[in-house]
């Protein structure tokens, strides 16, 4: 059984990659999601819950921006330039994982008021909650595709050269 680069990244350098690339972003996102529910359903909002939500929303985007830059440089560019992708499931897993930057950094931009500075609290809350939902969708697509054996999705590991690149003329 083979694995996607997404799963390989999480399995390598244990426990650090799992913590840095999965645990930190997911814990921040789950903290935002749970505190967002408390904010949506409990009025008046507890200042502690509001502060936790704001801090996690601020940190998550900037943290994940670092992850995006690091993985683009050390994984996406090398895999793309050498033809090292393990089929469509591999691309979907890594691509959707990295798409998490859109909602997470969007939340950070909301928290810094770079976006929505003139909006009322209700509009900001709706956009923030929508971004939380969007992150959960892209993260789950990444996880599902990442757990798929690339061979089941049509990738043929026999057409890979020793350096991990695809053989000339092979498309998967």
TrEMBL record:
Upper classification of the organism: Bacteria, Bacillati, Actinomycetota, Actinomycetes, Micrococcales
Keyword annotations for this protein? Membrane, Transmembrane, Transmembrane helix
- One matching Pfam family, short form? DUF6803
InterPro entries for the chain: DUF6803
Q: What is this protein called?
A: Permease
Domain of life from the UniProt record: Bacteria
Transmembrane stretches, start-end:
20-40, 52-71, 91-110, 131-148
Transmembrane helix listed as a keyword: yes
Q: Does the keyword Transmembrane helix apply?
A: yes
